[in-house]
Design brief:
mainly alpha, 3 domains, cytoskeleton, Centro_Cilium_Assembly, Centrosomal protein 83, coiled coil
Length: 701
């Protein structure tokens, strides 16, 4: 409108009328009209100018305000940048402190070296009590075995001695019975002879003789009562010895039961030790799992791996040395057991040889007895021819034989004493039996002395009979004595047969005892070998488990180390890429902020609506492209977000949390190529953005 008004004013002088006064009046009126119009137009233009001037001043003020706001925002941005730098410095300091704390925690946390040391300590703490326990168990088993063998040997020895004493008592009783029966027969014969003499001799003399005989009879009855009392005492001693044997057997049965209970308790303790070892293995497994988690979190260095491998080698070497030590200890224990076994066998051989020597001496004595019995038979036959004088000689020889038997028994006692001196362990238990034997021998000697006294009295009576009797009576007495000698011969033969049977029984019992002892020894050796085999198998299984666990532990450790190395490499690659992308994103965000400020400035300026819509469309297109490019750079697999709002960009702090699908085996060349492509794209974007900014600036102007 202003331009058109100026054009009309320029054309105004050309339209004036050329003719006279009428024309002047008409022209004056027209001129006045035109002047009025022009004045109106001028006023209108003036009003327009004033409005435009006011708008211009307003726009200038707004421009100044916007510039001031821009400066204020720039100052705020600088302040924010300074604050961010300070925060960055603080965060870096905190990072350094945290790294220091992490290193301290690493030092405090269980490293594989400390783990190995703890494992070795736990293994030593477990192995030493278990070894001591096994050693004590072996010692207790050997002690109980020795006690069992000792008790069994004592039982057999006491049993054999009891049977021997029983047989001796039976033999002594039979001999005493035979002697007393022979004496009673003789006394009855003497009674008959005296009765016959009483018929022939004076009554006074016979009365004296009867009184003397009655006195002798009373004495003999008293002696018989004493002998019967001694027999009763011997029987009581026999019963006492039987009760003692039964008590010993009960004690042995009780000790065997106690030994079985101890063996069961030891087996239960062994099972508890096994359960404890399994529980400790489970705890070790759990601790190993925790340690693996810590190892995964801490990412050990290559130096620690080398030290760990060296320590593993050292541990293998130490384990091999421990295994060799255990084998040497087992061999030593085996050799010691073999030595003890050889010692026991040598002692048994010595005892067997002593027993055989004693048996040979007994057999030799038996042969001598048989020969002497034969000589006695011959002498008896000669005595039948020679008469009563040879009987005295036979009795003397019999006494000599009894003395020799006593001497042989003394030799046997001395030999037993010598054996007892060799066996110091059995002295206390054998002293009672030796005392009993000595008492019985003393009693036997006293009985023999009494018998000798009786024989002396009988001989005196026989001498008196020989002086008082006639030759017929002597012949009859000789015949009676011959018959008694025949009976005694038969008795001696029977006793010899009994002795032979007893010897054979003793031999059989000795053989049975020997076979039982050998069987018991074989069973004990078998049980020992089985237990040793079981212990060795258990030891071998434990070693195999330990080796398997160590192999698994080493394999897991190697896998973890490899995974840690791969994770470190991946982390370093991702960190480098993220740093580069963060730098690019920061550059793009700075450019975006500049574009936004320019957009705001342009929006505040007075721009036509068409230009504004066109520029807005172009800005949306640029934002869309920028978002697509950003999504391609940051998350190439995700679809591009076509958001119009510029605030919808993700903050750079959220980028590291996103999972970037970079392959771990990416090479350096491919990385360099991608970086070069990204640089080219960024340069193209910068050029396009500059062009667009120039276009926007030109359109705004």
């Amino acid at each position: 409108m202003v331009v058109s008004a100026f054009t009309d004013m320029d054309t105004f002088p050309n339209n004036l009328p050329p003719s006279g006064d009428s024309g002047l009046t008409g022209s004056q009126s027209e001129f006045q009209k035109m002047l009025i119009d022009e004045r109106l137009r001028c006023e209108h233009h003036k009003a327009n100018y004033q409005t435009l001037k006011a708008e211009h001043t307003r726009l200038q003020n707004e421009y100044v305000k916007s510039q001031n706001e821009l400066k204020h925002q720039l100052n705020e941005k600088q302040i924010h940048q300074e604050k961010l730098q300070l925060l960055l410095q603080e965060l870096r300091e905190e990072l350094i402190e945290k790294t220091k704390d992490l290193e301290e925690m690493k030092l405090q946390i269980l490293t594989p070296q400390k783990l190995e040391l703890l494992r070795a300590q736990i293994q030593q703490e477990l192995e030493t009590p278990m070894r001591e326990r096994f050693r004590t168990l072996d010692e207790e088993v050997e002690k109980y075995r020795a006690v069992y063998n000792k008790l069994r040997y004592e039982h057999t020895f006491l049993k054999s001695e009891f049977e021997h004493q029983k047989e001796e008592f039976a033999r002594i009783l039979e001999e005493g019975k035979i002697k007393y029966q022979s004496e009673i027969a003789r006394l009855e014969e003497d009674k008959e002879e005296l009765h016959n003499q009483m018929l022939n001799v004076d009554l006074s003399r016979d009365s004296k003789r009867v009184e003397q005989l009655t006195r002798e009879k009373v004495c003999l009855c008293q002696k018989l009562k004493g002998l019967e009392a001694e027999v009763a005492e011997l029987r009581a001693e026999k019963e006492n010895s039987g009760t003692q044997v039964e008590n010993i057997q009960r004690i042995q049965v009780r000790q065997l039961a106690e030994m079985q209970t101890t063996v069961r308790s030891l087996e239960a303790e062994k099972q508890t030790a096994k359960l404890r070892a399994e529980h400790l293995e489970k705890e070790l497994q759990s601790s190993n799992e925790q340690n693996t988690c810590l190892i995964n979190k801490l990412h050990k260095a290559e130096r620690e791996i080398n030290t760990l491998s060296n320590k593993v080698k050292e541990l293998k070497h130490s384990n091999k040395l421990e295994i060799t030590d255990i084998k040497l200890e087992a061999a030593r224990a085996k050799s010691e057991l073999e030595k003890e076994r050889n010692k026991i066998q040598s002692e048994l051989d010595g005892l067997q040889s002593d027993n055989e020597i004693l048996r040979a001496t007994v057999e030799h004595h038996k042969v001598l007895l048989v020969e002497k019995d034969r000589e006695l038979i011959r002498k008896v036959q000669a005595a039948k021819e020679e008469g009563y004088q040879k009987l005295v000689v036979l009795q003397d020889e019999k006494l000599e034989l009894e003395n020799k038997l006593a001497d042989l028994e003394k030799i046997k006692v001395e030999h037993d004493v010598w054996r007892q001196s060799e066996k110091d362990q059995y002295e206390e238990k054998l002293q009672a039996s030796q005392m009993a034997e000595e008492i019985t021998r003393k009693e036997l000697q006293s009985i023999r002395l009494k018998l000798q006294q009786q024989i002396v009295t009988i001989e005196n009576a026989e001498k008196e009979k020989n002086e008082n009797s006639d030759l017929r009576q002597q012949i009859s007495s000789l015949q009676i004595q011959v018959t008694s000698l025949a009976q005694s011969e038969n008795d001696l033969l029977n006793s010899n047969q009994m002795l032979k049977e007893m010897v054979e029984r003793l031999k059989q019992e000795c053989r049975n005892f020997r076979s039982q002892a050998e069987k018991a020894q074989l069973e004990a050796e078998k049980t020992l070998e089985e237990k040793q085999m079981q212990w060795l198998e258990e030891k071998h299984k434990l070693h195999e488990r330990i080796t398997e666990r160590e192999e698994k532990y080493n394999q897991a450790k190697e896998k973890l180390q490899r995974a840690a190395i791969a994770q470190k490499k991946r982390k370093s690659l991702h960190e480098n890429k993220l740093k580069r992308l963060h730098e690019k994103v920061e550059v793009l965000e700075a450019k975006k902020e500049e574009l936004e400020t320019e957009n705001q400035v342009l929006n505040r300026q007075n721009v036509p609506f068409e230009d504004y819509t066109r520029l807005q469309k172009r800005l949306k297109d640029i934002q869309r492209r920028h978002n697509e490019f950003r999504s391609l750079i940051l998350v190439p697999n995700m679809p591009p977000t076509a958001s119009i709002n510029p605030v919808s960009f993700q903050s750079p702090a959220m980028v590291p949390s996103m999972e970037l699908p970079f392959p771990p085996h990416m090479q350096e060349e491919q990385h360099q190529r991608e970086l070069s492509l990204l640089r080219k794209r960024l340069e193209e974007l910068e050029t396009t953005q500059r062009k667009q900014l120039e276009e926007l600036g030109s359109s705004g102007e």
